[in-house]
Amino acid sequence: MTPKIHQQAYSRSDVRRQFALSERDLRSWEREALLAPADSYSFSDLIAIRTIVELRGKGFRSRQIAQAVDSLRRKLAGVKQPLSELRVISNGKKIAVRLAGQEMEAMTGQILFDFEASELGGVKAFPEHKRTGNRLRESEVWFQKGLDLEETGAPMEQVIEAYRKTVELNPGAAGALVNLGTVYYRERRFAEAEEHYKAAVTADPSYPLAEFNLGNLYDEQGRLKEAFDHYKRALALNPQYADAHFNLALLSERTGDTLKAVHHWKTYLKLDRAGPWAEIAQRQLERLRKATVIHSK
User: Fold this and answer.
1) H or E element in which residue 270 lies
2) Range of the domain at 271
3) Torsion-angle region of 101 (φ positive above 0: left; ψ -120 to 50: alpha; else: beta)
4) Number of domains in the chain
5) Which residues contact 71 (CB under 8 A, 6 or more apart)?
6) Distance between CA atoms of 167 and 163, rounded to whole angstroms?
7) Which residues of 190-225 are buried (b: 16+ CB within 10 A; e: fewer)?
8) pLDDT of 275 strictly over 70
9) Short-list 162, 141, 14, 9, CA closest to 79
10) What residues pair up with 11 in beta bridges, in sequence order?
11) pTM of the full predicted structure?
């Protein structure tokens, strides 16, 4: 199954399903200006939504997140969308961002020597936030350029150069690393694809698409155990990841594990009852059920 490409639009229903959200959640975040009202979302929007979900899971209210976002915009020149442009983190007490290997508290702009023990008061001023913010903004510009070049069918050399510039300016740009990996994957330059997918996992261990794409790569190469492992890691990060269930179902069929295949087909159909792949999933599930009945007679 083909990996999702970052420039595609994701509908509101796609987003609600992927993150287990309600329409009320999205409208609330729009009112707080955490999201712009829209009928569909870009990949950058999905990064922002994932960040909101993570912060909400740690007990922060939408208003607190909105205040932190506003503070970051004022403190970091050139950063317009902190939730997608920056790596936002939290220990459940404060919201911070990771910049240049350090962690800056969103509301105060102070550097935290030890974020886990920040209540001990080890802080100092953050002297280079403007320069760092500009580099991150420039990185985002190059990332968007790479997406645009892919969309218009530009030569792959130009696409690769744009994503490489992104990573040079922001080594933690997991999205650009994944896209570089996918460019190499399509050209069957598997060693380079693996290198960049692994770098994306290192840059952002909570990024299920990077794990999923590694699964695809190993599946293509016949490295089935490794493919299983990475699809499962993608599901551990996002149990609602329909594509991972789809590919695990196919892989389970190939290795003769009918029960696992049935499980993943059923789960896929719960997550995507009407999508373009649902008909295939339903057909495969029915075929396995019939084969199981015949075999048991």
Assistant:
1) helix 258-271
2) 241-297
3) left
4) 3
5) 106, 107, 109
6) 6
7) beebbebbebbbebbeebbbbbbbbbbbbbeeebee
8) no
9) 141
10) 40
11) 0.57
